[in-house]
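User: Methyltransferase domain-containing protein. Structure?
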Amino acid sequence: MPDSFPLPPTFSSVDEYLLSLSEFYLDPFVQSLAGGLHILNFFLTSPDLFEDTLSEEWVTFFDQAELDDILDYLIFFKGSNTLQPPESLSIFLSTVQTLSINRNLPDEQAFSKPVPRLHSSAISVGMSPKKVHECQYLSSTISDVCSKVATPHVIDLGSGKGYLSRTLAHEYNCSVIAVETVESRTKGAARLDSLYDRKLGKKKDEKANTDKGTGSLIHVEKFVDSGDLTDIVEAADLRGHKIVLVGLHTCGNLSHHALRSLVDTQEIYAVAVVGCCYNLMTEKDVDKDHIGYPISRKLESRSIPLPTSARMLACQAPATWTPETRNNFFTRHFYRAIIQRIFKDRDLLNDSEGRILVGSLRKQWYSSFPTYCRGACKRLTENYDTQLDDTSENPFDISEEVATEYHDRFVSKKRRLCILWTLMACTVAPLTEALIHLDRYYFLKENGASEVHVSVVFDQVISARNLMVVGIKGQDRR
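Assistant: Predicted structure:
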């Protein structure tokens, strides 16, 4: 079967697509939107980051048009008769559209076979509708890969509470080793296994019976920091057997370890991985040969940087946004940008990146800016309490009067912050995600995989990280 990648319709090859995408992405203006600037620094410059980044004609257009119309234009590329964007903006968005891969789930008629429903209601115990959708579609695809490799053996890397592992074992008769780092998740998976058995009326300690269409499942607690899984293979007594390595939303570099296992572990004959949490990836240090982006020689030769801010933006999911959720995003970024200005005015921005880590707060802390300041102060005081003593004035303590004064000073520019962040998250960020998957595609190609596929496996509205990478080991690598 020929290799595949979800190319935009105007491209006939992956090489052609990479060339066009990298040329656009390396443009200095695109680089600034891709991660060269950080939205929390919005109010630190004069003029603000909006005017500092965008051309005068873009600024004029964005300041004058209706905000909802602008957001529809940037998120959905949907214009209206009332919008009269400058030609340069129209060309920019048109180029972005041309370079954007198709993230829509194909109709079931387009699959090699219809995606079956989960047969047993017991299998979905503990699953959200999102997780049911993911396990249903991914397990069907993994079953096809197992058939192609001719093996029932599967390692599920980053298995969490075992939803995918359980589905593969009990719906597809696979022999599954579920590998998870976090003890609480492994224990949670074991409890769900027991609940599944009880729902089926299965007696405690009753062994799996493959004649009844049930595979096997064991849980292993292990931290994986490389592609060499030989110790797991040996512990499972699978030396010399073919194994398919899978992962549902493997975080950060765990996706890289999964792909490297096709090279570093003799028994791994195929990988089928859906990644996530790109912000937890690292950038490869060529001198130290650390794992991270880029893992392929092809992308390394292009010298396309993906700093943390770019990878964080690539985690956004505009397809899942509603007016309420996007307004919540805007409020959070607006409050964080104002408090950053307060920190600057108090000479507190002394770290290498000029940032103080606040992190996410609970929903109730975002009801107003003074309330947010109280929550942030509480968090920061806990984090920095070793630097304070009973006689020290708390530098993070922001009175309600001060918080209100700062809020009122900057609130008129909130719409500018909303527009700039949407421009970053909805136009350039999806191209960053495409680059990450091109890197993974080329890595498998360069390392002798006989088949490489990057394809859409979930409905993006249900599960935003919906790109699956499949690699099957070539004959010369066996």
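The CA atoms of residues 175 and 272 lie 16 Å apart. The chain has 17 helices and seven strands.
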